[in-house]
User: Fold Superoxide dismutase from Natronospira elongata.
Amino acid sequence: MSHELMQLPYAMDALEPHISRETLEYHYGKHHQTYVNTLNGLVEGTPDAELSLEDLVKKASGKLFNQAAQVWNHNFYWQSLSPNGGGEPDGELKAAIEKRWGSVDAFRKEFTEQTVANFASGWGWLVKKADGSLDIVQTDDAETPLSDDSLTPLLTCDIWEHAYYIDYRNARPKYMEAFWKLVNWEFAAANLAK
Assistant:
C-alpha cells in the first residue's frame, strides 16, 4: 500500500494567530509530505509495503523507523490541535489529570517545563500507562510511545524547530503558550477512552 499525507482536519489558516498558515505550509506541506514520500520510497517493492503505518512503526528500525514514526507522530500532532481547542478538559480526562497532578494547571505547568527542557528535537506526550494512570513522556527525534505496548498516546506537542521557528523563532516557551490555546482535549479524551 502507498502511504498518503493525511488530510488536515481544519483549513491551513485555521490555527492563526497562534500557528500561521506559513508554518503549516512548511511543516505540513513540506516536512510532513517529505516524510511520507521518503517512507513510500523505502517500502516500495518490499514486503513492508503491505504493512499499515502503525505496524511499520512497531517493527521497523533505522531510517525506515524514522520516516514511518515521523509520519505517524505528525498525523497524531495535527489531531492534537484544533481551532476550537484550548481551555480545559472535562469528564474522565479531567478527572484522570487531577488524580495524577492535582489540577489541570499543575499538569500544564509540568508538561510545559518538561517539553521546553527537552534538549533534542522531539515530542512531548501525554500518555495513559497500562495501569490506567497518566504520565508525561518526552521522546527525541522520531521516537514515539506507539513503540511501547504499555503506553497509549493521548496527545502530543511537536518540538522540532520546524514546528515553531517561523512564528516564534527560537522561543520554544512562546510556542508552548500557543499550543495550550489550540490543544484538542476532545481528541485526547477519545484516546483515553480506547
In short: The first helix runs from residue 21 to 43. The chain has a mean pLDDT of 97. The helical segments are 21-43, 53-59, 62-79, 91-101, 104-117, 165-168, 172-182, 185-192.
